[in-house]
Design brief:
By secondary structure, the protein is of the alpha/beta class. Among the domains are: 246 residues, Rossmann fold; 69 residues, no CATH class. Helices cover 27% and strands 21% of the residues. It is built from 16 helices and 33 strands. The strands form six sheets. It has a nine-stranded mixed beta sheet. An eight-stranded mixed beta sheet has the order 4-5-1-26-27-33-29-30. Strands 16-17-18-21-22-24-25 form a seven-stranded parallel beta barrel.
């Protein structure tokens, strides 16, 4: 990777012209007016993955930004008029921060655009992020040949420095490591270098093969400007970026911005009280499925939690400070009870601990709520009426499945929220390819029962959408299968799916471009703990670190027998707590709160896309205006007050060293006004 040093021209004349225009520093001049700084970020993009990762972070947080694509011949020119408006009585800076691909992306440090941008940053105190650059003196670092190093960082330990922990990266505990998921294919390249004068390292690492430590991310203050210099490559999915992205954004905005970001992890346990069919390791299919002929084979008895499993679940929650959502089928439980002597120790134990869980209606008997299924073919199809129209489950039948489960819960005193629902297999919603539309009777049945939030499968429908007056809540399916109760069964089915035909698998991985075959089958005795658990925990933790509130789901079978869900949850929670400070807890919201969060985000993004949000800071006062009814997400420093009609109140709730919240104008006010400390 070759680079050459870049020179700079003196910009004193430009700075002098700018300051004189505002009456700043002129002998005898009156005090300059305090400028208005808009809460918007300028992103200069050259197509690099690092800029894309930061842009995604801005979008996901809810921060408005403007992108200038250097590859677009029709792009606007970045000059003084583009960056600021000085025509009125109050100078207006249009951007609170700037993201560049590197420190000088305009072809030459002496280019007019580079000079205009640097003058703007000096004049208004605007920070600049260099998304990825090499180590050299012009970014405040020694060359790597002077006691540094350049190369692949996969697996390299790194740490937040004392300066980083005292500042923008204080939400992290300190130590972390670069991902090393594919040793044969390097994923992260970077430069480890010694800081020069004016450079404060926020993240560093030991110099590989050398002595001392070198910076990977830090602030370079020089020439009246500040740059956040990142000297390692990354993409938006790598854990090291996900860990540091929050701090990069907070530095870029100096802790005052629209939008908010938190780390979320919620887990739904489906089919509680019902039994789940068991994977047949001999026939490589699941009895009860349409493609598994012959009924139950030897050793394929259904999987169902016991009272001891329920007691373990309650104790696990207490030990870990984490609440599971029990998604229950009471009718299936009643059927089990009647078939087993009229008693059910599992139900008794769960009901004794009912206040320790959140409960969600999963319908009475887990019926398929979509079209009537014709199972005479594989795969199944929707049954047709004589006139060729689709046969649908009726509104009254769907409503009964929802109502009966809810009424049982009320009678048992379960603390559930009537507005939440998870249908069996997410049925009733469209299921491709057999059922390309929702059951037209579903929306009415949801309304009949007061359901506002119905779960959907994120692997099929990642976006929230309406179903009549209700909204979906997409859920992540966990790669812990519903039809296994032991680690050996899980590894066996995993092998069937992810190994080639030559290795005894189904070959599905060979035919699916989105899949990769295992180099060799997993050892069924050790494969679950050694391979599947770390992979699934990494995936789930990645969702949690992405400001993604969507819940994950597994099944009651995974809390039975070998209790295989717990190793995944244990690793997610342990890894999280090892990475983050106590000021940044893992949020564990219920389904209705998740649905509300997704709904607010969608409305906010629509308002931003339609340019209907105005937000700016003048000195210590922040003013935000948005369309009526749209909640506004804001992140600010501790000590910020919200202006009320009479007096003020403390704004937001604390998280990661800042305060944030969804907010709206008070009664008789047209905008939100915050007083910064």
């Amino acid at each position: 990777m070759a680079h050459k040093a870049r020179g700079r021209r003196n910009t004193a004349a430009l700075v002098a012209a700018a300051t004189m225009a505002f009456g700043l520093g002129a002998p005898g001049a009156a005090a300059a007016p305090t400028p208005r700084i808009d809460l918007r970020v300028l992103v200069v993009d050259d197509g690099s993955g690092t800029v894309a990762a930061l842009t995604d972070q801005l979008r996901g947080t809810g921060i408005p930004y403007t992108t200038v694509d250097l590859r677009d011949p029709g792009r606007p020119v970045i000059d003084a008029a583009f960056l600021a408006d000085t025509g009125g009585s109050t100078p207006r800076a249009r951007y609170q921060g700037v993201v560049l691909p590197d420190e000088a992306p305009f072809g030459s440090p002496a280019s007019a655009e580079q000079q205009a941008l640097e003058a703007y940053e000096r004049t208004y105190g605007i920070p600049q992020v260099d998304a990825y650059t090499w180590a050299h003196p012009e970014v405040g670092l020694d060359y790597t040949s002077d006691g540094g190093w350049a190369g692949t960082l996969d697996g390299q330990p790194a740490a937040v420095t004392a300066a980083g922990k005292a500042g923008w990266f204080g939400y992290l505990d300190g130590a972390f490591a670069f991902e090393d998921n594919s040793p044969s294919v390097p994923e992260s390249y970077g430069y480890v270098a010694r800081p020069r004068a004016g450079f404060t390292s926020y993240v560093d690492t030991a110099v590989p093969g050398g002595t001392g430590r070198g910076s990977l991310l830090g602030e370079y203050a020089h020439d009246g400007r500040r740059e956040l210099v990142v000297t390692f490559a990354y993409n938006g999915y790598q854990q090291q970026f996900r860990l540091l992205a929050r701090g990069i954004v907070e530095w870029l905005t100096q802790g005052v911005h629209l939008g908010q970001a938190r780390n979320y992890f919620a887990v739904h346990v489906d089919d509680v009280l019902a039994p789940d069919s068991r994977w047949d390791t001999a026939r490589n299919c699941t009895p009860g499925d349409f493609d598994c002929a012959g009924g139950d084979g030897p050793g394929t008895t259904p999987i169902r939690m016991t009272a001891d499993d329920a007691a373990y679940a309650a104790q696990w929650q207490r030990d870990h400070g984490f609440t599971l959502d029990m998604v229950f089928n009471a009718g299936s439980g009643e059927e089990w009870k009647s078939e087993h002597g009229g008693t059910d120790a599992l139900a008794d134990r769960l009901l004794a601990d009912k206040a320790q869980y959140r409960w969600i209606n999963h319908t009475w008997t887990h019926q398929y709520l979509g079209c009537v299924q014709d199972t005479t073919t594989v795969p199944w199809s929707c049954a047709k009426n004589a006139d060729g129209t689709t046969q649908w489950m009726s509104r009254s039948a769907i409503s009964a499945e929802i109502r009966n489960d809810h009424d049982w819960a009320v009678a048992k005193g379960l603390p559930l929220d009537r507005t939440e629902l998870v249908t069996g297999e997410h049925s009733g919603l469209k299921t491709l390819p057999q059922q390309p539309t929702d059951n037209p009777n579903l929306a009415g049945a949801l309304a009949d029962n007061g359901v506002k939030w119905t779960a959907s499968d994120n692997s099929r429908e990642p976006g929230q959408r309406p179903v009549g007056s209700a909204l979906t809540v997409p859920r992540y399916p966990m790669n812990v299968y519903y039809n296994v109760g032991t680690k050996a069964e899980m590894a066996d089915e995993y092998n069937w799916i992810y190994t080639s035909r030559a290795d005894g698998g189904s070959g599905v991985c060979e035919n699916n471009p989105g899949s990769t075959c295992l180099p060799a089958p997993l050892d069924t005795a050790t494969g679950y703990d050694d391979v599947i658990v770390p992979q699934e925990a990494r995936t789930d933790l990645g969702h949690a670190l992405s400001n993604d509130p969507r819940p994950h789901y597994a099944h009651q079978s995974n809390l039975a027998e070998d209790r295989i869900l717990y190793p995944v949850l244990d690793k997610v929670l342990a890894d999280y707590r090892a990475l983050f400070a106590d000021s940044t807890p893992l949020e564990n919201p219920r389904q209705s709160a998740i649905g509300t969060e997704l709904q607010r985000r969608a409305a906010w993004q629509t308002a931003l896309a339609n340019n209907r949000v105005t937000a700016y800071r003048v000195g210590g006062t922040l003013t935000v205006t948005a369309p009526s009814g749209v909640q506004i997400p804001v992140t600010v420093p501790e000590g910020t007050k919200k202006q009320l009609l009479l007096g003020t109140s403390t704004f937001g709730t604390p998280y990661a060293g800042r305060r944030s919240a969804w907010t709206a104008p008070e009664l008789l006010q047209s905008s939100v006004t915050l007083k910064l400390p």
